[in-house]
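Re: the multi-chain job from yesterday

Posting the exact lines I submitted so nobody has to dig through the queue logs.
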Amino acid sequence: MNDQNEFQELWNDYLEGEITSDGMIELQNYFASDEQLLQHSVDSFQIHRLLGYDAKADEQRDEFVKSTMAQVLASQHVTETSLESSNSRMIPHTGRSQNSLTWRLLATALVLAASVLIALSYFSESSANRNAIIAKTTNVHGTIEWTHENGVVETLTETNVSLTGGTLETMTSESTITMQFTDETTVTLDGLSLLTISEQQQKILRLKRGNLSADVAPQPKSKPMMVFTEAAELRVVGTQFNVNARDESTKLIVNEGEVLLKRTTDGESVNVVPQHQVVASLRDAKQLRSVKRARQAHVWKSDLQSETSHGKWIPSKMELVKELKLAVANGKLTQAEATKIYKKAASLNDQQGSAFALPSRFGLSVVVSVNQEATIPVVLEQNSSIRITGRAYAATDLVVGITTNQLDGGFSGKYQQHVDLTDLLDPATHEFTLDIPINAMSRINSDFPASPIGKEFVSCWCSHPTNKVTKIELTDIEIVKTEE
Amino acid sequence: MNDSTPPTEAVIENAVRRTMAGETMAFEAIVQQFERPLRLWLATQAPPAIDVDDIAQRTLIAAFSQLGKYQLGTNFAAWLFTIARYQLKSELTRLHRIADYHTRFAPELLQRELDRRSDSMPELQELRLTQLQRCVAALSEQESRFIVWRYDESLPLEQIASHSGRSVAAVKKQLWKIRRRLQECVERHMSTAGEIS
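And the result, structure tokens for all chains:
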């Protein structure tokens, strides 16, 4: 490729927001060696931006004016002081200081009275808004705690329950709740998730963790639905999308319409269009990129270190160190012998390890979700099975479940199978291997599709109803094709 | 497409005076008048990482809250654009604090040249836009279609490729050519306009 073509390609990638860090350095080198090229490029950049501006300017104008005025009004109380001082400068001195003083006192009294009236009407209105019903539950399964704005906590078990502003927490892996807002926007929360909802002038959702799927009715452009997570904020005016929020990263998949995602760390934003996804991370400072979702895969192998979304991943070497230290402490090994064993093991792949289930008042559970960065949906087929290997201590039974999404977007359903481990456990090592055909799993709610076949696999869980002396450790999970 | 009648100073001064007197809604006239030149100017000065509308809004809100500092009878537009330059520089400073800013958002030399040009007259961009609209109108039907797909409809390159039956690389090349042609056309018109004036 000659220099001109290479530059053209780099420059196009830059304008399209697709340039790599290396590409950016190359671009800088081009500019450093050719001043004319730099000048042409800045002209080209400005033409590109003018074309972009011209295409959207008129349609965005009203929204911009409305939204700016709303912010101006909101900032008004801050400004009042400075305006007041400038007003006083503007009033010409007439010499009738007594009259002026009386006028000022009267004006101050009027302003105070008006402020009290405005404040009263605001508080009565906002109090009414606080108590206003904004949504109702349309599907509920599992344990869901609902904390009202007034602090009252209740467990939701039924559909058609009215919701005001407050916080919803789905407490177990198999829990799910779907709610419908008054404008028919529906939001589904599933797995171990925590969401605060409010709607006064616009819908505001704060997803602290977990999975949210939303089908959003058209919202006023000046009052879009906002979804906040730790790593990103989403601006939605009407669309279908899924969000997965973890402590340090948020994945957004858009299925219909468009969603504007802004990364928390640096304010960089990207408009995500249908069949595209983006991951915003608190750690990763790479350029934010919307990536097209690829076709389909039908098999999947877990990377427990990065894909354990609930549970504790412990590398094998750490377990070994604990065992060796204990052996040295108990006099079973000398320090030198332990070091020798450790050094030998140190050649093992660092990725090896296990995901341990975490206890809660609802029992033990571990959840493994398909990597946030993966762009290829894992689609379940008639001959798909889930294969799980691990160890279980003092547990004779397990529940294995999977969560699925619709292929064209949105939460689909949860399916599970109870497994009796009695004959499957190796008594010496406590190891087990489960091979569960997907089509043998049962839906956990009659509102879900009868079968998960043809749906996208997004996560799986293993749970046990108690956490008394029980330890569940997973060493590998796979979606495999069973031989016909 | 645009109502480019320049805001008369009297209208602006009147709106400023009424806002200063406590009539907050009078500020809407200022927002209406300056929304376009501000966003247009920022669009051509800000690197891709910056949300132009956000900076334009911050500028107007800062102007509203600092209105007491504006001296009636001087040049409101110049005062407002000074705030806009300051807001843009603040945002750039914030972004520069990110260690790898130049490898993520804008090569250093490009950014420096944009900074240098930010001192140019904001009206110049309005003039360039007018010339650009003329040049776009003169494109062939096929070329116009690419502009509509890319800018009006914001289609991803893959989709443009499938609409046009070309490869993504060919689409990139085509967009490069069209932008280049538009750039030359605008420069030609600008120099003619310069000679006439």
